[in-house]
User: What shape does this take?
Amino acid sequence: MAIAIDSGTASSIERRKISEKRSLGDRVFRRGVTAGALTSFVVMCFIAALLFFRGFEIFRAFGLDFVTTSTWDAADGTIENAKFGVAAMLVGSIVTAVIAMVVAFPFVVASALFLEFYASKKLKFILVSILDLMAAIPSIIYGLWGYLVLMPLAAGWAATINKYLGWIPIFGVEVENFDASPFVSGLVLALMILPIAMSVTREVYSRAPLDQIQAAYALGGSRWGAIRAVVLPFGRSGLVGGMLLGLGRALGETIAVLLTLNLVFEVKFQILASAGGSVASLIASRIGEATPLELKALMAAGLVLFVLTLLVNFGASSIVARAERRVQ
Amino acid sequence: METSQNKTSNPSLFTPGKMPAEMPIGTRSTSLDERMVNMSGLQTKGIHAWFGSHHVLEDISLDFPSNTVTGLIGPSGCGKSTFLRMLNRMHEFIPSASMAGEVFLDGEEIYAADVDVAAIRLQVGMVFQKPNPFPSMTIAENVLAGIKLANIKVKDKDSLLEECLTRAGLWKEVKDRLKLSGASLSGGQQQRLCIARALAVKPKVLLMDEPCSALDPGSTLKIEDTIHELSDTITVVIVTHNMQQAARVSDYCAFFLSDGHPGRIVEADRTDVVFTSPKDQRTADYVQGRFG
Assistant: This one.
C-alpha cells in the first residue's frame, strides 16, 4: 500500500549524497580520457597565451590602431618609429574567405544533393572517396596548382568580369592586372574548403526524415519538390555549419594564399585587382627576415587571426550541434 | 486451401451487380447504392511483389469500386502495407523492390511505361502510419503543400484550406492558429492535418496505412468519422490491425495471410460477410482474434 508522505516533514529530510565505488580499471580509464581531453584545451590556452605575451608590447603601444590601420613598417627596429597595423590583412583574409564561400556554396549544395539523392551507389562511393582525398591534398599543392594553372586562366575570367561588370565597385580595377588577386585566391580556397563543407552538408542531408520525403512524393511531388519541401529546410543549419567550418579553414590558410595573392597594405574591396591581404600569409612571408620587434608584431597578428578563426569555428560547431539536436 | 484462394482471385466478387441491394453493408449508415457504386475506381490484376528474391505478395486481384471503403486486414508481415504502397507506386522507392501484375485507375494502367508517376500520386493520395506533417511549414502551408509541390493553380486558397481542414475534422481546432508550425499539434491532430494535406490535391483515391495505430481512442474515432464522410466522394483503402475499426469503417474487407508463403488473399468480400459468415475457417479465426 502506498503511503503519502507528509509534506511538512519532507522539507526537513536530509537528501542523501549519491556515490559509488569505482573499479581500478574504470578509474584508470577515466583519468586517461580526462587527461586526453584536457590536453588539447591546455595546449590551445598555451598557444593563445604565447601569442598574447609575445605580442603584448605591440598591443600596448598601438592599441586598437593595430587592427584599424594598415601601415606595416618596422623602421629602425625601435617601437617609437615603427608602425604596425593589420587592417588590410584582416579585411583581405575575410574578403578572400568570403569569395571562397560564395564560389563553393553552389557546388557544396549541388554535390551534396547529387550524392545523396541522385548518384548510384557505385558512383557515390567513387565520388565520396575522391572528395575525401581532396581534403587530404597538402595546401602547398593547391597553391602550386593555383599559381601555375589557375592563375593564368582566372586572370582571363577576371578580365571578362571586369569588362562587363566593372561598373560594380567590387569588380572595378585601377590597373588592368588581374594576376594574384583575391578572386584567384578565393577560387583556390573554394576548392580547398569544398570537401569539408560538402561532407558535413551531405551527412545532414542524408538524415532528412524519410517519412517526410515519402509524404512529399505521395503528394505528387517530384524528387526536386521533395528536396525543396523537406531536405533543404531540414538541412539548412547543417549547410551553414559546414560552410562555416570551411570558412574557418579558408581564414587560416597560409601557403596557398601566399602563392596566389599579391599582399598590399591597403584596405581594398576590388576583388579582381592584383592586391589583397591575408593575415596568415603576412606572417609566413615576413617571419624569415623579421627583426625582434616585427616578430612581436607578427605574434600579435597571429593572435588576431587566432581569435577570428576561433570565433568562426565556435559559431560553426554550435550551429552543427543545433542541427544534430534537431535530428535526434 | 487452394480452393479458397482460387475463389478470391476472382474479380467478380466485388462486382456490385451480384450483391443483394437490400442487405446492410458493414455497420455503415449509407447504403452503397446511394453512393453510386460503379466499376470505375481502382483495380488490381495478378499483383506480385518481391523484395530482392523474397516473394512477399502473390497473385492479388482486387477491385476497389469508386466511393467505397475497403479494409485490408491480416497479421503483421502478410504484405498488406506492401500491397497498399503498390497502389500509388510508392513500392518502387525501396531499391530492391520489384513487382508483377497490373493496377488500373479508372481503366488506365498506372505502371504503364508512359505514365507520369507524380500525376498518379496526385490522384491516389496516401496517409501514413506515423503522422508526418512538414515541421518547417505552418499548418496552412502543410495543407497547401501538395498544390505547391505539383504547381497546381488555385484561385481561392483560403477556401480550399478551410474545406480540406473541415473535411478532415480539424478546422474548428486549428482555425485560429493556422500560422503555427504543423509540429505544434497533438499526434491525432497531426494525422488529421496529414489527411487534410492529402485531400487538398483532390485525389480520387486515398490510401491509409494504419492511420490510427499511433493514436489514442478519441483521435481514432475522429479519423473514422472523417473516413465515413470522405467515402461520399473518394475511394478509401485502409490497412488496419484493429478488427473493430475494419468493421466500423469499411464496406469491403480483404483478408491477407502469408503463413510462410508469399502473402495471398484468403478471403475478400463485403465486410458484413467477412465478419459474420466468412467462408474460410482462417478468416473466422482471425476476425475473432484467435490468431494474429
Residues 217-230 of chain B form the longest helix (14 residues). Chain B touches chain A at residues 88, 90, 93, 118-119, 121-122, 125-126, 128, 130, 132-137, 145-146, 148-150, 194, 197-198, 201 (CB under 8 Å).
